[in-house]
């Protein structure tokens, strides 16, 4: 009997030890085609969000493991809380997502850009803020516009294409990958809409493509934009607190008025 109890006790200890080891790792879901926030370099996932979460790991004494998945499954998977409790992928906050997950503090605001073929051109103009940009209505010559499924661009474009919108009748084409979408410009789509920095990275070095910011028309032209945050499973309060504490430090400005987040962006853009 004592021997049996000893065996059972040993097995229980092994189970508890295994459980503790699992808790030492934080799995983060991302979609590594959104430079400079997450992208592949030398076979590894790197980027601004990776740097942020690694600082969170240091704070909690846990290893951060990134998994590259399709963007549109991230929020739902984090909501379930079984495979991961964190999503870091240039995620923007909206009411639908807030009903499923908790969000960190906003750490970056990104303007929406349209990518277009230089040869074809686009109907751009000087906006009331003095910048050259494009109204949504200027895209109504398109037969189809590409977006990455589940992104803010997907939601914004959907609103413009809906009945009564400025692009009513234009087809929205969904892609899992931004690279594939951009390569389809001039073939099956006319434009791609995505956030500013990924847009600039995608057209960099491509002599056929250019990009410009999107605006809503009015007395004071308004930029179309979204704000990035990290999502966590509801109830993961300790994890969310650690993320917000790291972000609070990174959002402090130095003597030149540059935040830590912007420094990370500059690093991954090669602007250091």
Quick structural summary:
This protein is α/β, with parallel strands linked by helices. It has nine helices and 16 strands. Helix 2 (48-60) crosses helix 8 (237-250).
How would you sum up the major sheet?
13 strands, mixed
Radius of gyration: 22 Å
Through-space gap between termini: 68 Å
Considering DSSP H and I runs of 4 or more, what fraction of the residues is helical? 25-40%
Percent in strands: 25-35%
Q: Regarding CATH, which class of the largest domain?
A: Alpha Beta
CATH topology of the largest domain, by name, is D-Maltodextrin-Binding Protein, domain 2
- Uncertain runs are 1-5, 17-22
Question: How many extended strands?
Answer: 16
Mean pLDDT: 90
Please tell me the total number of domains.
2
Coarse structural class: alpha/beta
CATH superfamily of the largest domain: Periplasmic binding protein-like II
What would the principal axes of the Cα set say about the shape?
Answer: globular
Spell out the helices and strands N to C: HEEEEHEHEHEEEEEHEHEHEEEHH
Count the helices. How many?
9
Describe the structure.
By secondary structure, the protein is of the alpha/beta class. The chain contains 9 helices and 16 strands. It has helices at 2-23, 48-60, 74-80, 95-98, 152-161, 178-183, 196-203, 237-250, 260-269, and strands at 25-30, 33-34, 38-41, 44-46, 63-68, 86-92, 101-103, 108-117, 125-126, 132-135, 144-148, 171-175, 191-195, 209-216, 222-223, 225-233. Strands 1, 5, 6, 7, 8, 9, 10, 11, 12, 13, 14, 15 and 16 form a 13-stranded mixed β-sheet that branches. Strands 2-3-4 form a 3-stranded antiparallel β-sheet. Strand 2 and strand 3 form a beta hairpin. The N and C termini lie far apart (68 Å).
């Amino acid at each position: 009997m004592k021997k049996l109890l000893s065996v059972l006790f040993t097995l229980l200890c092994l189970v508890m030890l295994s459980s503790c080891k699992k808790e030492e790792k934080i799995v983060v879901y991302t979609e590594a085609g959104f430079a400079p926030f997450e992208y592949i370099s030398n076979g590894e996932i790197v980027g601004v969000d990776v740097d942020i979460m690694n600082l969170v790991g240091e704070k909690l004494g846990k290893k951060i493991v990134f998994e590259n998945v399709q963007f549109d499954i991230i929020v739902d998977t984090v909501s379930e809380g079984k495979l991961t409790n964190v999503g870091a992928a240039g995620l923007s906050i909206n009411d639908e997502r807030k009903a499923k997950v908790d969000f960190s503090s906003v750490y970056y605001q990104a303007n929406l850009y349209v990518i277009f073929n230089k040869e074809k051109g686009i109907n751009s103009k000087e906006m009331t803020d003095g910048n050259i940009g494009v109204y949504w209505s200027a895209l109504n010559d398109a037969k189809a516009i590409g977006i990455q499924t589940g992104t803010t661009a997907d939601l914004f474009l959907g609103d413009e294409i809906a009945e009564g919108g400025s692009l009513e009748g234009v087809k929205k084409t969904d892609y899992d990958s931004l690279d594939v979408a951009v390569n389809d410009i001039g073939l099956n789509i006319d434009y791609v809409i995505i956030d500013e920095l990924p847009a600039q990275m995608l057209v960099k070095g491509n002599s056929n493509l250019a990009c410009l910011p999107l605006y809503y028309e009015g007395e004071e032209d308004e930029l179309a934009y979204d704000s990035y945050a990290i999502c966590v499973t509801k109830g993961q309060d300790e994890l969310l607190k650690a993320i917000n504490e790291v972000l609070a430090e990174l959002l402090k400005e130095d003597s030149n008025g540059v935040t830590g987040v912007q420094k990370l962006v500059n690093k991954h853009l090669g602007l250091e």
